[in-house]
Design a protein that fits this description.
The radius of gyration is 16 Å and the shape is globular. It is α/β, with parallel strands linked by helices and 212 residues long. The strands form 2 sheets. The protein has a 4-stranded parallel β-sheet with strand order 4-2-5-6, with helices on one face. A two-stranded parallel sheet has the order 1-3. It starts with 13 loop residues before the first helix and ends in a 10-residue tail after the last helix. Strand 5, helix 6 and strand 6 form a beta-alpha-beta unit. It contains 8 helices and 6 strands. Helix 3 crosses helix 8.
């Protein structure tokens, strides 16, 4: 796995995407790949795969964002995305995630990226009903992560899953979303993100994070 390209925006290369698809049946990924296939069958939209260069079922930290963006969509009509939820995607938010993970000192094999609403349906906006449908998918994911110790909610909408996750027996932290909008409008919150992620890595008992 470590010989494959790992850098911001490296999944702009179709060959890099294909190399990762070949890893989706690896032991640490097979159960998560089946989970994604089941979600796709529900017909809500395109559900990207987990990045096999991350921890898969061995991850001890789950970073829950809000909703995938268009650069995760391998079936996009305007611009084809990678097909993965990945810090290596070709978009500014993914690039920020890559940078902040590095600043926080995470080994990516200990982490997993996912979204409360796991599908991209062509719309950035969503309503309460869509959020509820997304929340309903998380219980099955928890069962696939036996080593999970920490969940980090990345963004205010993701944090709405907190009442559900509080029953998972894990440490919970919160931070702002690493989007360009947050960077421009709330630079203090944006700068705080890697601080929270480092706290998650160090295993602090504090549940405090950046204010949403």
């Amino acid at each position: 796995m470590t010989t494959l390209p790992q850098a911001p925006k490296s999944l702009a290369d179709p060959a890099a995407c294909e190399a990762r698809r070949e890893l989706l049946s690896a032991p640490h990924m097979a159960a998560l790949t089946r989970y994604v296939e089941k979600l796709r069958a529900a017909g809500e939209g395109f559900v990207p795969d987990f990045d096999p260069l991350d921890g898969g079922v061995d991850a001890r930290a789950l970073f829950l964002l809000e909703k995938p963006g268009p650069m995760t969509d391998a079936e996009g009509t305007k611009r084809v995305g990678s097909g993965f939820i990945s810090r290596d995607n070709d978009d500014p938010t993914a690039e920020a995630i890559f940078t902040f993970m590095d600043e926080a000192g995470w080994d990516r094999r200990e982490t997993l990226l996912w979204n409360v609403m796991p599908w991209w349906n062509g719309r950035v906006k969503f309503d309460a009903a869509e959020r509820r449908r997304g929340l309903a998918t998380l219980g099955e994911l928890r069962a696939l992560l036996p080593r999970l110790e920490t969940v980090v909610f990345v963004g205010g909408q993701a944090a709405r899953a907190k009442p559900l996750v509080e029953n998972w027996g894990v440490r919970i932290l919160e931070c702002a979303h690493p989007s360009a909008r947050v960077r421009n409008l709330f630079p203090e919150k944006f700068a705080r993100i890697p601080v929270v992620w480092k706290d998650a890595r160090l295993g602090s008992k504090s549940n405090s994070g950046a204010e949403i």
